[in-house]
Structure formats: C-alpha cells, structure tokens
Amino acid sequence: MKTRPAEWPKAREGRSLNDTISIAVLPGDGIGPEVTGPALKVLDRAAGIFGFRVSAVEHPAGAGHYRDHGEALPQSTVDAVGRADATLLAAMGLPEVRYADNTEIVPQIDLREIFGLFGGVRPIRAWLPDAVPLKDPRGRDIDFVLVRESTEGLFVGRGKEQADGDRAVRDIMEVTRTTSEKLFRFSFDLARTRRKQLTLVDKANVLGSMAFFRRIFDEIAAEYPDVTTERLYVDACAMAMVQRPWAFDVMVTENMFGDILSDLGAGLIGGLGLAPSGDIGGDVAIFQPSHGTAPDIMGQGIANPAAMILSAALMLDWLGRRREDERLQRAASAIERAVEAALGSGAARTRDLGGKATTAAAADAVLAELKG
Fold first, then answer.
1. CA-CA-CA-CA torsion for 190, 266, 173, 222, nearest 10 degrees?
2. By mean pLDDT, which of 117-126, 135-144, 180-189 is the weakest?
3. Domains of the chain: which residue ranges?
4. What is 133-268's CATH number, 1.10.1740.10, 2.60.120.260, 3.40.50.2300, 3.40.718.10?
5. I want to staple 254 with a disulfide (CB 3.0 to 4.6 A). Which of 153, 156, 336, 349 is the partner?
6. From the centroid of its chain, how far is CA 133?
7. More confident position, 59 or 7
8. CA distances from 106 to 25, 28, 158 (A)
9. Is 327 exposed, middle or buried (0-12, 13-18, 19+ CB in 10 A)?
C-alpha cells in the first residue's frame, strides 16, 4: 500500500493486543449509512480470511441526529471514539439542517479538534486508470499523498469570527509551532517510505502565518537530508497538479488549502468516490471517505462505496502497524487489490464512474475479489 507510512505511532499503553479490533462506527447522514454497511461487510470478510475479529459498534452523530435530538455529537459518541481502537466515520451534514448561525453540521471537524488529529492523510491514487482524465506522455500513474493539517489554519476561526456590525466579518488564522512540527515530521516520515520527495504548499509570499509555517518546515527539513523538498505557493501548486500530477510524491499544507487541493486531487483520479482518507493524532485516528453526504442520490442505492472501503483498508493498516500485527496489514493490502480488480473488471463501476453497478453490486464485486 503505497499511500501509508512504514511506521505509524505504536499502540498506546494499556491497549489490548488480542485478536479483536474494536471499531467505533459513525454512519452519518445522506449516503453515509449506505456505504458504511458494505465497508463493514468487507472488513468482516477480510477478518475471516486473515484470522482476526472485528467488533464494530455504531454511534450517533450528524445533522440528522441534531435535527431529531438537538445535538450533533453526543458526549457518549466522543467517549466511544476515545475508547475504540479506531473509528470509521461516514459523511455528515445535510443542506437543510444547520445551526442557528447558518453554518453546517460538521461533527467530523469537532472530533479532529477534540482529539488533536493534526495529520489529515489524503491518498490520491489512480485506482481506476480509465477514470483518470489526464495522461502522462511518459506513462507514469498518479500516486501521491496530500497531508492536510486538520486542526489549525483558517479552520481555527470557526465560530470565532469578529463582526463589525453588518459592515464586515473577520476570521482568524492560526499556525502553531507545536502542531506544525508534528505535521512536518509525520510528512517527512511518510515521504521516507515512498519516493523521498516532499512538497510544501503555502502562501508564504503574502501571509505572515504561512511564512512562519515555511520557516518551521525548513527547520525540520534539516533533520531529513535524504528527502528532496520542494516549496510551492498554493496557486502555483493548483496549476502544477493539473500539469504534472504524476510528479508529486507527498505534499503537506495548511488546513484550508488542503481541503481545496484534496478535492482537486480526487478530480484527477475520477472523483471523490475513489478518495479515502484518515485523520491521525497521537493516540486516536478516524478514517472516512473524502466525499460528502450526496443528498441528491441518497436512498437510491447507487452511491459508490469504494472510498469508504478503501478508508477501512487504511484503518486496518494503521492498526496493524501500531499493533505490529501483519495480519491486519495483509488484510489492508488485500482489500486494496480487491477494489482495484473489481473496478478494473467493470463490476464495481457505479454511475459516477460511467458504470451501472449499484452500491450493493459494487460491494459484492469487491467481496468476490477479496482473497488471502
């Protein structure tokens, strides 16, 4: 699995290293529950093949829960995420359900902040080459990882805007040394497991916070002389991602920039239905598809489950490396191979990929390809 580090943080003290992994499952809103079920089936099948067990327990959170119960993220769910070995989270939010200030319901962002999940890992890989709109004349595949800082940057101003009557509203942006150092070391370590190339994306020519961000990056870079580094302003990076996406290895950037560029990256490989992700902290990690709740197709049984299934694979690898359990790592690789094979045969191509497969049919195709 090219998109993950060779060494995730080891398991925290007191964690059981038995045959069962405990997963907190947050099915979310819209198509969230529709893609969660298939991902859990794939997890169960992989567990049976590779000799471990999965204990998955669902917990409420999201816009629907807020609409019905007046809270988007119950404390009991937060506690469950903290106790679990890992969390599998589906998309959350509904366009017609908002807080009183008209902002969206986004418990996934709350969880990142609560648990300090600084490393947003967004793999961008050509899982289905036919769906890639850009082709390299030299035949190289798109295969890079965007690491998005997920707790600071412009997002830190969420709910803290400063209003000057109805004349202006000011948001704040924050970059701290502590979080940036963790982010950069994480990204350099990831680059060491791949092609040893790391690109910093910022706007250091305009914003003081980004100049500070770059200065910290330069300091950490000195600790990794074996990794080649590149520095791009975010606007230039957006252009380069279209002109030469196959040239990137690992990219690291601020929260808002990463939010935007990860969607651009998904577009380069066929869409958000093929875009898994993980939000990594010191002790807690949450894995989720990069796509939204897609309320326009909810309930129709046509949502693409691939991103959710691939997020589950990323979760297994993270757990396997923390536990030093090769069974989980082999299961993660097997799920990836099964997704690629099912997409390549056409059996798992849903409508967003130009196919006709339903959610259930796509998941069944992956299950049929899953082997030890």
1. 20
2. 135-144
3. 1-116+275-372, 133-268
4. 3.40.718.10
5. 153
6. 22
7. 59
8. 16, 10, 11
9. middle
